[in-house]
């Protein structure tokens, strides 16, 4: 059985192949030491982070990191050891300690490696490797350009929280005693800025960022700076709202957070702990009938794209929700065994989630809502995945006659996630592609808004 996932592009990378060899050797050492099963995951990463504020360099970090995690099982007992040293002797010692620890822990009847996956493994090009040969001076200049564009944007800009640029390249390898060997590599580059405005009502902050696996796809530094400043200026004159019930429109990045709660509720961890408001949702309507959610692990340059999950199970395009009905949960090997199901290849979470959207953009959804609340920022932790209760502090804009009337803050929105998901009216085509969850603006029929009065 061929369980190797070594994309052709990776086979010309000596550092990656060395990681793979060390993983295989350490798995073999665990078996010799008496482990029934073993898994080794290794990472090697390099990065650069720069932060400037008022044109002065506040942060300059060049990093080089290596790590490995060795897991051994004996009679259902698990031992785990992590090290920051990739020398063969250190990995051998880690294997010895992991096997020793596996004699001390309580057995877990559902534990162990994911079941071997004999299915053909698709290996489409993911195009995730785009190192940025950036010197510190160049990074500082780009961050300064970003901040300068925002500071020059408009007179109300009173101060700056600065601009930050980061770039990271990571290689990883995984081997286990079922014969799996896989390698992956990816890069991630990010540029961020934040500014402060002030008026008689007080101070407001606005920010913006972009994050991509290729620096060539990043928004222009000046555009990021201007958008961050614009968000701050638009917040001037923010008011509070009286308590009411009304439609709520979530901006794309905030909508992604809502679907993040959905993914948590259908995860194996929550289901096995009986800590999910969707524990009885399989096959049931959980979203409106016009909605589909698909996992797309092979999106080129996707933030979560991968050939296999954290347990080596093959990643494949698959529906999570079709026609509003929940088609499956998101399970790793352990949770699948406890629930009497098969792994869905979601150890480590969902890869990329794609939310089906309609034809309208944000302006179209504002007109459709007519009167209500546009949420652009959420604060606080008032979400219960167990019950679905939802209460968050938010800021954004009040909308009248299909157009933004004025900014609002210091308000709270409340409902229940089950009701919120059932009450989705539309999803916009203004899809945010920066993260793993790809969704446009999300219009919900009704929520409680609490503020002054």
TrEMBL record:
Keyword Magnesium: no
Entry's Gene Ontology cellular component terms: cytosol
Biological process annotations from GO: proteolysis
Domain Metalloprotease TldD/E C-terminal span(s) in chain numbering: 243-451
Keyword flag Protease: yes
GO terms assigned for molecular function: metallopeptidase activity
Keywords: Hydrolase, Metalloprotease, Protease
InterPro entries per the UniProt record, alphabetical: Metalloprtase-TldD/E_C (IPR045569), Metalloprtase-TldD/E_cen_dom (IPR045570), Metalloprtase-TldD/E_N (IPR002510), PmbA (IPR047657), TldD/PmbA_N (IPR035068), TldD/PmbA_sf (IPR036059)
Domain of life: Bacteria
Domain Metalloprotease TldD/E N-terminal: start-end pairs: 38-100
Domain Metalloprotease TldD/E central, residue spans: 130-236
Family, similarity comment: Belongs to the peptidase U62 family.
Name of the protein in its database record: Metalloprotease PmbA
């Amino acid at each position: 059985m061929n369980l190797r996932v070594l994309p052709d592009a990776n086979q010309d990378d000596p550092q990656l192949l060395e990681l793979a060899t060390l993983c295989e050797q350490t798995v073999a050492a665990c078996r010799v030491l008496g482990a029934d099963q073993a898994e080794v995951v290794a990472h090697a990463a390099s990065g650069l982070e720069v932060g400037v504020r008022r044109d002065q360099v506040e942060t300059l970090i060049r990093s080089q990191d290596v790590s490995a995690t060795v897991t051994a099982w004996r009679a259902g007992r698990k031992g785990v050891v992590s090290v920051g040293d990739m020398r063969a002797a250190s990995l051998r010692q880690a294997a010895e300690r992991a096997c020793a620890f596996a004699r001390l822990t309580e057995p877990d009847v559902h534990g162990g490696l994911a079941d071997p996956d004999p299915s053909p493994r698709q290996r489409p090009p993911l195009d995730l490797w785009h190192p940025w040969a950036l010197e510190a001076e160049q990074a500082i200049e780009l961050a300064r350009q970003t901040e300068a564009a925002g500071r020059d944007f408009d007179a109300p800009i009173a101060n700056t929280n600065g601009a930050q640029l980061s770039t990271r390249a990571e290689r990883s390898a995984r081997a286990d005693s079922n014969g799996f060997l896989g390698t992956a590599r990816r890069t991630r580059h990010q540029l961020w800025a934040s500014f402060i405005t002030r008026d008689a009502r007080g101070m407001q902050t606005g920010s913006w960022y972009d994050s991509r696996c290729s620096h060539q796809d990043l928004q222009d530094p000046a555009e990021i700076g201007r958008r961050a400043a614009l968000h701050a200026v638009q917040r001037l004159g923010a008011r509070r709202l009286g308590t009411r019930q009304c439609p709520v429109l979530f901006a794309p990045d905030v909508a992604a957070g809502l679907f993040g709660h959905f993914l948590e509720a259908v995860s194996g961890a929550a289901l096995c702990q009986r800590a999910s408001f969707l524990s009885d949702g399989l096959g049931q309507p959980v979203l409106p009938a016009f909605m589909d959610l698909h996992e797309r692990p092979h999106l080129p340059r996707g933030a979560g794209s991968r050939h296999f999950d954290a347990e080596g199970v093959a990643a494949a395009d698959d529906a999570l929700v079709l026609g509003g009905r929940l088609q499956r949960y998101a399970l790793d090997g352990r949770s699948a065994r406890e629930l009497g199901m098969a792994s869905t290849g979601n150890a480590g979470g969902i890869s990329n989630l794609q939310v089906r959207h309609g034809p309208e953009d944000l302006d179209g959804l504002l007109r459709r809502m007519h009167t209500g609340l546009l949420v652009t920022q959420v604060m606080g932790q008032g979400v219960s995945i167990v019950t679905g209760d939802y209460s968050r502090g938010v800021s954004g804009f009040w909308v009248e006659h299909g157009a933004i009337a004025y900014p609002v803050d210091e308000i709270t929105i409340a409902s229940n996630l089950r009701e919120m998901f059932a009450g989705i009216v539309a999803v916009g085509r203004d899809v945010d592609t920066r993260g793993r969850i790809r969704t446009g603006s999300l219009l919900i029929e009704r929520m409680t808004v609490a503020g002054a009065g």
